[in-house]
Amino acid sequence: MKNIYQKIRDLSIKYESDTAGFLAEMIQTPSFSGKEKNIIKIIHKQMKKVGFDNIRVDELGSIIGTIGNGPRMIAFDAHIDTVYPGNLDNWDFPPHEGRIENGKVWGRGASDQLGGMASMIYAGKIIKELGLNDQFTILFTGTVMEEDCDGIAWEHLIQEDGIKPELVVSTEPTSLNIYRGHRGRMEITIEVKGISCHGSAPERGVNAIYKMAKIVNEVEKLNDRLKDDDFLGKGSVTISIFQSGSPSQCAVADYAKIQLDRRLTWGETKDSAILELKDCCSRAGIDDAIIKVLKYEEPAYTGKVYPVEKYFPTWKLDEGSHWLKSASASYTKTLGREAKIDKWTFSTNCVFIMGKYPEIKCFGLGPGDEDQAHAPNEMTRVSDLSAAAAFYAGIIAQLNNK
Questions:
Q1: Which listed residue (146, 218, 276, 369) is catalytic?
Q2: Does the pTM of the predicted model rise above 0.90?
Q3: Each residue of 172-197: pLDDT tens digit?
């Protein structure tokens, strides 16, 4: 007689082609950040089709499907916005064709991260069909605007809707491994002013570019001094944008600004990162530099503007966590092999979940590969979709002691 985990896996395989077809349908509906309205309609229709108990869309535009009404709450999360295709010459097929071929689903968002959305909805179908849940209210969130501002949708869910699950399972791509953390990040600018004069007599002015060049040199050196962590790796900083201005092509620059991508390892914070940049300016001999953490203030497709600071805290789930032990156990029972525990290189919504609210625990498993994110000819394996769906349903069975 088959045990519950074998039944889960059998159903995930039974629904594999439906899961792949749903993913292809989502790929065929472009859903760039702030433009997710049409894909939300498709997801709503699919949630209703597979039998979710409740479906709603919040003011920022994220969709929240619910199964069960238990006293405890957990959530599965997928962001449903994607980046643009980029240079179409790098693609071997139309990016939004949603092709299913050679055991793979191809197209923009296949791995990052509409595949996770497809798998978790069909996990919901399996949970309902097998009656796996009696303890939890389970949320399945299709969140918006992550590519532009990771975590903003969850900051809204937590602060405006009062949603605070015990656990959030991210379905970002992990090659079917279990990930328990990643570095945080910040977006920062440094500005300096100069004094313009005619370019024929530069000694009469103060060149802002030369001032900034000294800071740039110190920022490059800073990268070598940043903290390291045995699990998450080293912090990093790089300059992504350099801008300057002057009254004319024949004038000394009176303005310069750089934008920094700062990746934060364990023990690094917003305050420590700002202090390090102030030290860089001091070492450069520049005492009037202005350092700012950027804000995200773009409107959602609903029209709502929800400003957040672009500081995304570092997080990691303790390797002895009972949540991680449950995840590993259900992985083995459902997929028949031991899970590899690792971390993401990129950032996810977990920065504004466990990163900012450490009482809400996170880990992740998703179909597809991290190196497919933002790449041309993006794809995910059909077999990953059913395996991920089985894992999500298996976690619910494990936590409900089935």
A1: 146
A2: yes
A3: 999 999 999 999 999 999 999 999 99
